[in-house]
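Treating backbone geometry as a discrete language has practical consequences that deserve illustration. Part of our work consisted of pairing the sequence of a single chain with a tokenised description of its backbone. What the numbers capture is local backbone geometry rather than side-chain detail. For completeness, the protein is quoted in full, as a sequence line and a line of structure tokens:
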Amino acid sequence: MSGDLEYLLISSRETGRWVIPKGWPKKGRPGWRTAEEEAYEEAGILGRISQASIGRYRYIKWMPDRLVLCSVTLFPLRVDTELDNWPEQGERNCMWASRGAAAVLVDEPDLAEIMRQTNLSREGSPL
């Protein structure tokens, strides 16, 4: 691997489209800590997470009884371990993708733009 930034995409449970690990804010928990927990639960990855965000985007989430406008803050995580077993393993597929490929695969235009514009490397990241 060249050391360039890659994104771990996961399939959403409802539609199967490619998304990134994310979750609802938890009271009393910083956003970066929630992101770290969701990366473990949804994708089975562990590593060192940055407390500095690399961007934000918004999207519409389809709930059973309504639409919700969600705002997502992105925190880079340097992956040290990919687990063989994790909580949502049987519910999702996972795929590593380069910045350009990931930007094409996700549906959210603002997320795709962040993916294209963010140029961290393993050596140069804030992690």
